[in-house]
Design brief:
heterodimer; A: about 110 residues; mainly beta; six-stranded mixed sheet; 11 strands; about 0% helix; B: about 120 residues; seven-stranded mixed sheet
């Protein structure tokens, strides 16, 4: 029972263009959502988060959008850079939960 | 400041061997988590500590897996009688606060375990 789904295993984008990574969830109790970036042989690095009381959070080139009614969130990277090439994980937990539930990840390749 | 560190970074074990994986969380972080990441998958929760108390071990796959954090800082994940299906990356994460809430978990680099 996958509660967090990232249906696109990979995405390829030209440098300077927008990257859009998508994530769907099934648990309506999820309250907090995070995106992590992971390079090979390294641990996941926190990128950006959003709580369920918001529908958008922006940090520099990164923006996360949350659509609670659709149980969908997305990460927008503008402009994309070659250094953004990594695996991106969507994760979530409930308001009183501690453990993060992760999606399977999306491999982003930014071509120069 | 220093991040979460884990050792060893790589471990090769023969089937049936016991292994111990170490995690040093960020100094002062109250919460500590262990996750298991199989190839091509996202991390999956194993267990959670608040200080020295293990508050959730619902993700441990079998009684061969045991975790401890006796002094509320360093943690060890022990796997007894390793099996091939235990091959994975084991990630440790720490969080500053104790109670649940909208706080970020910071991950270490992981220990890649290969059981032959």
């Amino acid at each position: 029972d996958q509660q967090v789904k990232q249906n696109s295993p990979s995405l390829s984008v030209q440098e300077g263009r927008i990257s859009i990574l998508n994530c769907d969830y099934t648990n309506s109790m999820f309250d907090y959502f995070l995106w992590y970036k992971k390079y090979p042989a390294e641990g996941p690095t926190f990128l950006i988060s959003i709580s369920s009381i918001k529908d958008k959070n922006e940090d520099g080139r990164f923006t996360v959008f949350l659509n609670k009614s659709a149980k969908h969130l997305s990460l927008h990277i503008v402009p994309s850079q070659p250094g953004d090439s990594a695996v991106y994980f969507c994760a979530s937990h409930t308001e009183y939960g501690n453990k993060l539930v992760f999606g399977a990840g999306t491999i982003l390749r930014v071509k120069s | 400041g220093a991040g979460v560190s884990q050792s060893p970074r790589y471990k090769v074990a023969k089937r049936g061997q016991d292994v111990a994986l170490r995690c040093d969380p960020i100094s002062g972080h109250v919460s500590l988590f262990w996750y298991q990441q199989a190839l091509g998958q996202g991390p999956e929760f194993l267990t959670y500590f608040q200080n020295e108390a293990q508050l959730d071990k619902s993700g441990l796959p079998s009684d061969r897996f045991f975790a401890e954090r006796p002094e509320g800082s360093v943690s060890t994940l022990k796997i007894q009688r390793t099996q091939q299906e235990d091959s994975a990356v084991y990630l440790c994460a720490s969080r500053q606060i104790g109670a649940s809430g909208r706080e970020t978990q910071y991950f270490g680099p992981g220990t890649r375990l290969l059981v032959l």
